[in-house]
């Protein structure tokens, strides 16, 4: 478990003080993928660099597996950092070293015997899907392959946690998905805790279990990914969720369309988890004397299950409409009436 309490970082420049991280407290559980999302300047990079003290905190504490990072001496910190892997947006590889030698580097520094290094490096090369590329130099690799080297290097000393600093931001969408899949498989195979920062909601949706939203150095919202997606609270979170759900963008257009039709009830439904697989619309059409018109719908998978949004129009007698809505609520679907008949 990682416990971060009242973490603060103030940069003092000649002209001004910048409060980059402002009283952040978070608990990150063993084996989870925890995402921190925010717009540029929110304080994400500073936050993640504070965890392994690449930046010195102004105040606050960070405990990893009950060891207080903030109180460690330089020597203790050097040893602890071997157990905190990190990957970067621009990979930070050693360009004059081959794939093999890049991955071997942290093991050499840790004083591991050559024969053990060989076994470990070959195992890691296999794990990240780079078999056959051992003797290539970084310049001979694609962006996705470079990040695979970065991941293998970060895993060399069997870390307790992997920090990912915008690890997919320099990659195209398809390669991003491949790297995200690799991170999920590593998380599952090794039960490795992963903390990542990103400005892309897609990354959070695809691989994170929990998420914190940062704004002006503060965490403005935090929770299970599914909950945050379905019920975003802060304005910033709502904007991020809209980034991903085209339906939310189109809600204004839908509203115009809805207002044209004065005899129908218009409803927004949120299906969460196993409910996304339920044939609720055909159920209500059979069970009640209502006409159902499907206006728009989408379904999005997350690590913790799927969620779906559906806009429907219902026509029928008022008491039947009330019963239909009650039936859908009882089925565990969230119902929001956008326009009454
Ligand atoms: N070394 C520094 N000295 C002074 N101010 C800094 C320093 N590093 C970051 N800042 C400031 O701290 C704030 C947070 O920056 P940070 O890079 O952590 O945000 P971010 O969310 O990672 O943004 P980006 O995605 O653009 O990197 C910004 O106002 C930034 O200008």
UniProtKB/TrEMBL annotation:
GO biological process, one term: amino acid transport
Domain ABC transporter: 2-241
Pfam families per UniProt: ABC_tran, NIL
Domain of life (superkingdom): Bacteria
GO molecular function: ATP binding; ATP hydrolysis activity
Keyword list, A-Z: Amino-acid transport, ATP-binding, Cell membrane, Membrane, Nucleotide-binding, Translocase, Transport
Name assigned to this protein: Methionine ABC transporter ATP-binding protein
Species per Swiss-Prot/TrEMBL record: Gracilibacillus oryzae
């Amino acid at each position: 478990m990682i416990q971060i309490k009242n973490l603060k970082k103030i940069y003092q420049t000649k002209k001004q003080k910048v409060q980059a991280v402002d009283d952040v407290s978070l608990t990150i559980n063993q084996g989870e993928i925890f995402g921190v999302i925010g717009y540029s300047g929110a304080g994400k990079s500073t936050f993640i660099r504070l965890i392994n003290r690449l930046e010195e905190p102004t105040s606050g504490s960070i405990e990893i597996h009950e060891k207080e990072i903030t109180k460690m001496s330089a020597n203790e910190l050097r040893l602890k950092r071997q157990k905190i892997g990190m990957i970067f947006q621009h990979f930070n590889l050693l360009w004059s070293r081959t794939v093999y030698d890049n991955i071997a580097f942290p093991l050499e520094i840790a004083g591991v015997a050559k024969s053990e290094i060989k076994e470990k490096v070959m195992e890691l090369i296999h794990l990240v899907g780079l078999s056959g590329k051992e003797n290539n130099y970084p310049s001979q690799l694609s962006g996705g392959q470079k990040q695979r080297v970065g991941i293998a290097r970060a895993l060399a000393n069997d870390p307790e946690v992997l920090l990912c600093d915008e690890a997919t931001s320099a990659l195209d969408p398809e390669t991003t998905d491949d790297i995200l899949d690799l991170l999920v498989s590593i998380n599952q195979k090794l039960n490795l805790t992963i903390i990542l920062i990103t400005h892309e909601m897609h990354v959070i949706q695809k691989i994170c279990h929990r998420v914190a939203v940062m704004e002006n150095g503060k965490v403005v919202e935090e929770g299970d990914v599914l909950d945050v997606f379905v019920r975003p609270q802060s304005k910033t979170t709502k904007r991020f969720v809209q980034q991903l759900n085209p339906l939310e963008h189109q809600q204004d257009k839908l509203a115009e369309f809805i207002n044209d039709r004065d005899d129908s009830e218009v409803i927004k439904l949120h299906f969460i988890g196993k409910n996304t697989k339920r044939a609720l619309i055909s159920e209500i059409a059979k069970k009640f004397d209502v006409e159902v018109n499907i206006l728009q719908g989408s379904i999005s998978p997350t690590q913790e299950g799927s969620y779906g949004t559906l806009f429907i129009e219902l026509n029928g007698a008022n008491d039947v409409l009330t019963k239909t809505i009650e039936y859908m609520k009882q089925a565990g679907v969230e119902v929001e009436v956008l326009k009454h008949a």
